[in-house]
Design brief:
The longest helix has 11 residues. The chain has an 8-stranded parallel barrel, surrounded by 6 helices. A two-stranded antiparallel sheet has the order 13-14. The protein is built from 9 helices and 14 strands. α7 runs parallel beside α8. The protein is globular and about 40 Å long. With about 250 residues, it is of the alpha/beta class. It is about 30% helix and about 30% strand.
């Protein structure tokens, strides 16, 4: 039986981990290996690692670093950043990761989704879309390159296309709510859930367990993904790697 997952998302930048707010103001929050070791002890459902520099710098993933992380991890891992070919996805999976996320590359060349699905299986292909609510008209726009490049892509139509091409999961990342810790965009979540039947996850806005429970109540089985919630503590946002799940949500493997 599928269960909702409570998933930390860590951002790799300049050799360390950062946490952003609205995709800006990256604050250093520690070392990736240290965070993985802590999350191991917390029995985390899954961990997402995103290299936020790779695509903008037009470079491939740091496979040596990913191997070091995978060796230490005792939880399912998803990696995204700089993936532009099925061969790279295969290499990431061979290191010990369960999932590979693509974003800008999928939008630039949707056929890559199918190529990856053929190479590593649909269950390992994640399409992550960074979105921002439109200011002057209804709906949402899709962005790439850390929120700097607006794409001429219809969000819902592309979600459906990605699933048709072989994506096993859709992750929606709200730029507006990134780091705000004031709750998920439930309207956005409901729209995407109504459009596709594959597993979906949402990032952006979680500030406490109630926000995660509200997301689960709104859309059913889902990946409730958060960054700030799991790396900050207290009103002054002191850095403290932590993990907790809503009382009614059992571990994904239980």
């Amino acid at each position: 039986m599928l269960r909702s997952r409570i998933v930390p998302c860590l951002l790799l930048h300049d050799g360390g981990l950062v946490k952003t707010k609205a995709f800006k103001e990256g604050k250093y929050v520690g070392d990736a290996l240290n965070a993985v070791k802590i999350f191991n002890e917390k029995e985390v459902d899954e961990l997402i690692l995103l290299d936020i520099d790779a695509t903008s710098e037009q470079r491939q993933p740091d496979f040596a670093r990913l191997k070091t992380i995978a060796v230490e991890s005792r939880m399912p891992l998803c990696y995204g950043g700089g993936i532009t070919s099925a061969a790279q996805a295969v290499e990431v999976i061979s290191l010990g990761f369960e999932k590979v996320s693509i974003s800008a590359a999928a939008l630039a060349r949707p056929a890559l989704i199918g190529e990856m699905a053929s190479a590593i299986g649909s269950q390992s292909v994640v399409v992550t879309l960074d979105v921002r609510r439109n200011a002057l008209f209804p709906g949402y726009s899709v962005y790439t390159h850390n929120g700097r490049k607006k794409q001429k892509t219809d969000l819902i139509a592309f979600c459906r296309q990605a699933v048709d091409l072989g994506a096993g999961e859709i992750v929606i990342n709200s730029i507006d709510r990134d780091g705000a810790m004031n709750g998920y965009d439930l309207d956005l979540a409901r729209q995407v859930r109504a459009a596709v039947t594959c597993p979906i996850s949402f990032v952006g806005g979680a500030g406490n367990r109630d926000h995660m429970q509200a997301l689960i109540d709104a859309v059913g089985v889902v990946g409730a993904v958060a960054g700030s919630l799991f790396v900050f503590q207290g009103p002054y946002r002191a850095v403290l790697i932590n993990y907790d799940r809503p009382p009614g949500v059992r571990p994904a493997g239980a």
